[in-house]
Amino acid sequence: MNSEIRNLEPKVLWDKFADLNAVPRPSKKEERVIAFMTAFGESLGLVTEVDKVGNVLIKKPATPGLEDRKTVVMQSHLDMVHQKNADTDFDFDQQGIEMYVDGDWVRAKGTTLGADNGLGVATIMAILESKDIEHPAIEALFTIDEETGMTGAMGLEGGWLKGDILLNLDTEEDDEIGVGCAGGIDVTAQRTYQEEDVAEGKVGYTIAVTGLNGGHSGMDIHKGLGNANKIMNRLLFEGFENFGLQVSAIKGGSLRNAIPRESFATIVVDGIQEEAFVFETGQLIQTIQNELAISEPNLRIEIKKTDLPKSVMELGVQEGVLKALYAAHNGIYTMSASINDLVETSNNIAKVSIGNGKVVIECLTRSSVESSKIDLVNKLRATFELIGCEVTTSGDYPGWAPNMDSPILKVLDQLYQDINGEKAHVAACHAGLECGILGQNYPNLDMISFGPTILGAHSPDERASISSVQKYWKFVKEILSNIPKN
């Protein structure tokens, strides 16, 4: 199956991408891909080092004639988001990604593709292996755990890198040159509750919200996509208000940085209310599907009768949790006043887990303005603390402030126009790139971000444009041959 991928142009890049995608590489389980990358560097006879947190650095001297150019750090992250459709049988810990060609797109069978940031990694591998591509001295930096905490970038110590320019290959629009990004922070609300026995005369039901697009909780947060946790809560809230619905368990979402695509709940209602409950819920389901018909045409919401569960939530706690989830902010909070069409601050209600006497609600809050980020965190904290939750924050990382006077920006801006006959879109993004963190220990690095077009990142609909990769590969080679002199 992946043989057709290896035959795409540029073959050297797609071949390395296929090699990489054969290696399981979930965040926080990167041992195999670290070993893979280390062996790759050593097989080329290049200086290859691994730091204490697992970042890999491979150094390649300049090609003849470019020894006087500034040293370039080419950087991408090794881990990938692991998401699959509910009906896809796949073990991310053991299997390589199964890819196929669909017109101008490379996709995966029912899972994330790993183009984020695997195409960046494959690009660097192809440059390291090349014998005929002109380039200055290169420090190839492969970081770990970008998707679930950026601990690789955070653990990178000052002094290891000697480069002057950093090319981050983690942007997902081929006409964009990235000059800034949002910072982020994890917000977690937790509390316990007493479980109650199910009373006589109750009937059990399951509710399943599936078929949503999902996507990147930063890059896609402005698209009006459905959030499975918010949709489920709307159904449960109405069922509770109108029919005394009681919750036994909820499981929604899987990763903080992915807009949740699925949510599943087990509930009970009075038997005498059963017919009315099913009818009214069906009406609400139709309303929600109509509201999201354009942005979420594949949304499915199913309600099915099931065996009666053994226990349900304490009623007072349930009421508070449903109301808090309704009130908690999800999506865009503020737009940037200084950069047109840029989301400044947002929140993703990413995971909701209720059962066995415990409530856990996990969010990822992003912002390019620190004060706005803290403002939204405080709003979430106040919302959940009002219902008795303990709210904690973790994984705080800084944004990357744009430098419109960057020398490497001027190089890329002009080269893009020369190659493509039009100007690139120079922009900051709402995703969390590692540049802001790397800049803390390497404040003099001149940083820029770019990449090929990737759509649907962090979802099983992730896909990479073949023609865009060809355009991007040409751009990469031109950049490397035009790095300024020392």
What does this structure look like?
By secondary structure, the chain is of the alpha+beta class. The chain folds into two domains: 3-181 and 400-481, Zn peptidases (Aminopeptidase, 3-Layer(aba) Sandwich), CATH 3.40.630.10; 185-397, Alpha-Beta Plaits. 30% of the residues lie in helices and 28% in strands. It is built from twelve helices and 23 strands. It has helices at 3-6, 11-21, 31-43, 115-129, 151-155, 228-243, 274-291, 315-327, 370-385, 407-420, 435-441, 466-481, and strands spanning 47-50, 56-60, 72-77, 99-102, 105-108, 138-143, 165-168, 176-181, 183-192, 195-197, 202-210, 246-252, 263-270, 300-306, 311-313, 331-335, 343-355, 358-367, 390-397, 425-429, 446-449, 454-455, 463-465. Strands 9, 11, 12, 13, 14, 16, 17, 18 and 19 form a nine-stranded antiparallel sheet that branches. The radius of gyration is 24 Å and the shape is elongated. It starts with a helix and ends in a 5-residue tail after the last helix.
Quick tags:
486 residues, alpha+beta, Aminopeptidase, Alpha-Beta Plaits, nine-stranded antiparallel β-sheet, six-stranded mixed β-sheet, 23 strands, elongated
**Overall CATH class of the largest domain:** Alpha Beta
Counting DSSP H or I runs of 4 or more residues, the number of helices is 12
**Whole-number mean pLDDT:** 96
**How many β-strands, per DSSP?**
23
In the CATH hierarchy, what is the superfamily of the largest domain? Zn peptidases
- Give the tally of structural domains: 2
Morphology: elongated
**For the terminal residues, how far apart are their CA atoms?**
46 Å
Supply Rg.
24 Å
The assigned CATH architecture of the largest domain is 3-Layer(aba) Sandwich
CATH third-tier fold name of the largest domain: Aminopeptidase
User: Which assembly state applies to the chains in this document?
Assistant: single chain
Structural class: alpha+beta
Beta-strand content: 25-35%
Biggest pleated sheet:
9 strands, antiparallel
**Helical coverage, percent range:** 25-40%
State the low-pLDDT regions, or none: none
